Amino acid sequence: MNQNVFSKLGISDAVYQFGEDILVGLRDRFAEIDRVTEYNQAKVIGAMQKNRVDVSCFAGTTGYGYNDVGRDTLERVYADCFHTEAALVRPQITCGTHALAVALSANLRPGDELLSPVGRPYDTLEEVIGIRKSPGSLAEYGISYAEVDLLADGSFDYEGIRKAINERTKLVTIQRSKGYATRPTFSVHQIGELIAFIKSIRSDIICMVDNCYGEFVETIEPSDIGADMIVGSLIKNPGGGLAPIGGYICGTKACVDQCAYRLSAPGLGQEVGANLGLMTALYQGFFLAPTVVSSALKGAIFAANVYEKLGYRVIPNSTESRHDIIQAVELGSEEAMVAFCSGIQAAAPVDSYVTPIPWDMPGYDNQVIMAAGAFIQGSSIELSADGPIRPPYAVYFQGGLTWVHAKLGILMSLQKLVEAGIVTL
Ligand SMILES: *Cc1c(COP(=O)(O)O)cnc(C)c1O
Fold it and tell me: Is 146 helix (H, G, I), strand (E, B) or coil?
């Protein structure tokens, strides 16, 4: 049974065997991931049972969507699963950036200050906040922004944060995942300590966590340890690969109400917003999400071990514990990034014949290369790799609806690096 089952797809015996040798050392890590999956699967099922999910929840609605049972129940399921008072889970939230923009602009007012105590936020938020000048930014509405960098070792600069908090500080945004940076991703426990510190200075500061790529990686979420809002995208972890669009904001009733009034209109709030027939996908995707996240995590750990063994810097490293599904690999050159991404693309079930090239993407400052052969366009819970073309030429690898596909993708990326003469096994 140990013949190279992927050889017909273009994986050489040497590449396949390299992967098999790595896998021998990963059994305990994979077993630990399976335990977290079991816990989170039970959490999701429990929330669905508690809210009596049934066939009426899957009916499509149109128009205003008043009294939409499926939509309202799904929001209760999210709220119960993440242990929050309220949730806004909508196909009308178009992506993660939109969800974050709604959460920020809904809870900030002119004269308020937004603070990021974890350094520069995700690229697309620079325009939302107005770090890069942009029409409609928070800055244009008179909302100022302050930022405290992490210390050199990646830890929180508590003294700097204390100094940065002033009487105008209204909301603190904490990004769990590293995004396109090579800093560490924070554990939920670390985020909890940061929130406790901030609340000890002023308990009325709203603490929001950008939870993108973090959902179901651990057994607790930032909402379990004091976050007032957690925010994410349904074409990442919680959509389980099936949600075709959407975002969520879970948190206190006060915060989520503000978000609903901002997303629709003052006075309307959560009561409008037809589900457009997407409920089955959103429920079933949430049901599958813990398993899908575990496949992605196994892929990330496999990739870290493969590329570290080959001498590349990988973040997290091959043995570190995981707090999101992203694996960064510093490849050192644009050519290596292109080869890696073309391998991910060539391994895909969809669009496997196309060649990814760097391009100027809206919301990003540098050229970006993206590889994704996804059923849902742009979905990064499906196997994908991307990265901005700038030193240290890191690709960010994530997703994989099944572990076997993630494995194939990583082996194919290695195959392409070997074929390009960049790696010798
Ligand atoms: C993906 C991501 C976003 C933005 O989400 P989009 O759906 O791409 O708009 C924001 N923050 C982090 C950390 C992300 O990973």
Answer: strand
How high is the mean pLDDT of the chain?
96
Contacts of 276 (CB under 8 A, 6+ apart): 60, 61, 62, 91
CA distances (Å), origin 352, targets 18, 157, 276, 370 = 23, 45, 30, 13
Distance CA 287, CA 309 (A): 35
Q: What share of the chain is helix, strand, coil (3-state, %, to 5)?
A: 45, 15, 45
Q: Return the DSSP state at 139.
A: G
The residue type found at 240 is: G
Q: Hey, what amino acid is at 60?
A: G
Give the integer Cα–Cα distance in Å for 232 and 354.
Answer: 29
What number is the average pLDDT over the span 257-261? 98
How far apart are the CA of 140 and the centre of ligand 1, in A? 22
Question: Rounded CA gap, 88 and 256, in Å?
Answer: 7
Q: Which atom of ligand 1 is nearest to the CA of 178?
A: 13
Residue with tokens 């930022």: 147
Of 125 and 364, the structure prediction assigns the larger pLDDT to 125
Atom number, ligand 1, closest to the C-alpha of residue 100: 10
- Residue 359's CB is within 10 A of a number of other CB atoms, namely 11
Residues 164, 196: Cα–Cα separation, whole Å: 16
Distance CA(416)–CA(10), nearest Å, equals 10
β-bridge partners, 89: 248
How far is 300 from 314, CA to CA, in rounded Å?
10
State the average pLDDT over residues 54-73.
97
Q: What's the rounded Cα separation, in Å, for the pair 26 and 319?
A: 10
Contact between 317 and 243 under an 8 Å Cβ cutoff? The reply is: no
CA angle 231, 234, 239 (to 5 degrees): 125
Residue of 98, 118, 178, 210 to mutate, ligand 1, most atoms within 8 A of C-beta: 210
Confidence of residue 114 (pLDDT cuts 50, 70, 90): very high
Q: Taking the CA of residue 250 as centre, how many other CA atoms within 13 Å lie in the half-sphere pointing to its CB?
A: 26
Confidence label for 183 from pLDDT (cuts 50, 70 and 90)? confident
Cβ contact 52:70 at 8 Å: no
Q: Which of 93, 236, 237, 249 to mutate to test the pocket of ligand 1 (most atoms within 8 A of CB)?
A: 236
For residue 54, how many C-alpha atoms fall within 13 Å in the half-sphere facing its CB?
2
* Residues 227-246: b if buried by 16+ CB within 10 A, e if exposed: bbbbbbbbbbbbbbbbbbbb
